[in-house]
Design brief:
9 helices, 0% strand, mainly alpha
Length: 207
């Protein structure tokens, strides 16, 4: 879709950042999901599944913060420096995409629960929502704006909302119980990272 509205230079930058950042993020989530499935497949009770899910979530939460913290703390400038001046917009694109690193890693790691509970249809519905709203939002934004950053932010926000919904659905199905402190730390860390990312993106629009 982006190739219909933007130049080859912009598409090239997007492709590089996608391979550099989004694919590794998905691989991390996929690797954690294999460990998670191995553990829940031998769990005997719902309480065991809940405890395993909570433990894996804590680990993946820390891992999920690494990409966005790196990018918002200047990693986008490092990417620009590493790739060269002609790829300057690549760093800005990485800032846009970093927002969805957290929900991707969190939800991807816990997807095996649907297989364990024989609820593959639920997963399919969320996959369909990600595709429909993601692609639909991308196409709609492309028709409204010629600014690649605004288009990507629209896509990332819609995609992230669905991914977070998927994550919380999994926690609900696993019957995970969290303390107020745990919920506060989770919300606080994600909020700070996203606020910093959006502040930097706002500065980008007014640069």
């Amino acid at each position: 879709i982006l190739s219909l509205f933007f130049s080859k230079e912009i598409i090239g930058c997007y492709s590089i950042i996608f391979q550099f950042m989004v694919l590794p993020i998905s691989l991390v989530g996929s690797a954690m999901s294999k460990v998670y499935y191995k553990e829940i497949s031998i769990a005997q009770t719902q309480n065991e599944i809940a405890n395993i899910t909570k433990r894996v979530t804590k680990i993946t939460f820390i891992l999920s913060l690494i990409p966005i913290v790196f990018i918002v703390c200047g990693g986008d400038h490092f990417i620009t420096w590493y790739l060269g001046k002609k790829w300057e917009i690549s760093g800005n694109i990485s800032l846009c995409l970093s927002i969805m690193s957290v929900p991707i890693i969190l939800s991807e790691s816990l997807l095996p629960l649907f297989r364990k509970n024989d609820k593959q249809q639920t997963r399919f519905i969320f996959d369909l929502l990600c595709f429909s709203f993601g692609i639909g939002g991308l196409y709609y934004a492309c028709n409204l704006s010629s600014n690649i950053y605004l288009v990507l932010i629209t896509y990332v926000v819609l995609y992230s909302i669905i991914r977070y919904s998927l994550f919380f659905k999994i926690l609900h199905d696993a019957q995970v119980k969290s303390t107020f402190k745990e919920v506060f730390i989770f919300v606080f860390c994600i909020s700070i990272c996203n606020i910093v990312a959006f502040v930097r993106l706002y500065q980008l629009f007014h640069h």
